[in-house]
Amino acid sequence: MKQKLMWVAWPSFLMAGVLELLVFAVVDPESLHWFGQPFDMPRQAVYSLGFFVFWLSVSISGALTLLLAKSPDEVNQPPL
Amino acid sequence: MSESKPPVKKVIPLAVSTAPIEPPPGADAEMVSLYQAHKKIYPRSVSGVFSRWRWILVFLTQIIFYGLPWLEWGQRQAVVFDLGARRFYIFNLVLYPQDFIYLTGILVISAYSLFLFTAVAGRLWCGYACPQTVYTEIFLWLEKLAEGDRSMRMRRDAAPWTLEKLARKAWKQFMWITLALWTGFTFVGYFTPIRVLAGEFARWDLGSWEIFWTFFYAFATWGNAGFMREQVCKYMCPYARFQSAMFDKDTLIVTYDKERGEPRGARSKKADPAALNLGACVDCSLCVQVCPTGIDIRNGLQYECIGCGACADVCDTVMDKVGYARGLVKYSTEHALEQHWTRDQTVRHVFRPRVLIYTAILAVVVVAMSVSLALRIPFKVDVVRDRGSLARIADGGKIENVFRIQVMNASEVTQNFHLSVDGLPNLIVSSETDISVESTQSRWVAVRLQLPYEGAEPGSHTIHFKIESKELDKSVTEKAVFIVPR
Question: Is the ipTM, as predicted for this complex, more than 0.90?
Answer without folding.
Answer: no
